[in-house]
Hints:
By secondary structure, this protein is of the alpha/beta class. It is about 45% helix and about 15% strand. The chain has 21 helices and 15 strands.
Amino acid sequence: MRYNFLLITFCFFSLNAHNIAIIGTGYVGLVSGPGLAEFGNNVICADIDKEKIERLKRGHIPIYEPGLDQLIQRNVKNGKLSFTHDVGQAIEDSDVIFIAVGTPMNEDGNADLRYIKAVLKTISEHMNGFKLIVIKSTVPVGTGKWASDQLQKWGINKQKFEMVSNPEFLREGSSVNDFLRPDRIVIGTESEEANYIMNDIYASAFKDGALPLNTNIATSELIKYASNAFLAAKVSFINEIANVCDATGAHVHTVAQAMGMDHRISKHFLKPGPGFGGSCFPKDSQALICIAQKKGISLPVVQASLITNQLQKIKPIEKVKRLLDATSLENKTIAILGLAFKANTDDVRYSPSIDVISVLQDERAIIKAYDPQAMENMQNIFPDITYCLSPEQAIENADAVIIMTEWPEFEKLNLKKTKSHMRQPVIVDARNLLDIQELKKAGFHFATMGNGMHMQ
Ligand code: UGA
């Protein structure tokens, strides 16, 4: 059997260009598919959402992700990349199936595997030959084994497939670069042959310097959660330090800079802000707690990082109140600059702006919001607030401005002009974007994260 497998491997995979199906065209699939095509593989991206696929075929990219349109265009043009809504056909036409569907958070904090299960079922119905099944979605430890058991339960012979875990480490907003030039590529399998094929699929990235990490499936699955929970804790840590800086007169930027000079700490993910958001850190930290809980293990550090994050998200409101010397923001006009959970994305999932807007609504404030990319997505959550066409329009007659996302265009705000259009000169810069000296010069009452309150 092993010989058979090697033979099959040799026939199908010795040409270097593998036939790959990517199931799911969300943030992960839509970057991984074109990325694997760029590495020289033949890729078909499949999704049951027919309308989305039709739009992709017409060249319309459904998400905002810098560089993605060129990557897709280039690989469609050279015949390496195509799209289909016929998931079954894509599976039959491919030797390697990457599963890149969502694993959202359940109400109890566990990852919801219903979309993974649906894809596995479709795979089981289209097994026309040996398939390597690669889980790229973030899934709890043990999912690879569970998927294998599930397929066998549906009558698929274990000789007909091999499972692989290949987590992604893509940051929204820079995911094209993260995919094409990754620090490391983690490959978890229980089979040498599957490992060989996976290393071949990524050969071009390894040639460019990416480091391979070959391990078993469970380890690979845990690496993803451990990495995200660690980075999330790092952000919560610096946010706590920023709060201490606010209270003591220390400067958080310098504290973080000096911490980062120690290579054991590193300078990355030490920027204070209004708390982490996005579809990954909150969900994966919570899922890791659930995974451990099932084994009777508690994770107080990870838990604390989530608690700190929840408190951090409403810090901008506390700061506005202090600057306005108000106990309530009723009837105050607040301009929110930035709705996306970070810059260079249109994603608002778990964005701190959601918490800030909710509190402002509870307090009956008048909310004017602007974001260069994320307003359409936020309109689905808050249809009733005022969305503005520019930062200037949002600022007009505002009692306070809160910068929630680090979009470069907010850095260039003309502070003198801004002040002249506001009812009161109050800014909370929750991303430490603006120059403190310039804010002072323009005569603002302002607060940043970790540099104290400045009342003129
Ligand atoms: C994160 C990880 O960085 C990726 O490696 C991972 O693949 C991805 O999750 C995922 O699991 O799919 P992402 O959520 O897109 O990527 O964005 P990050 O750049 O990691 O930022 C996460 C949050 O932390 C954002 O809200 C950001 O504003 C915040 N953050 C980040 C800070 O507040 N300070 C920092 O110094 C860094």
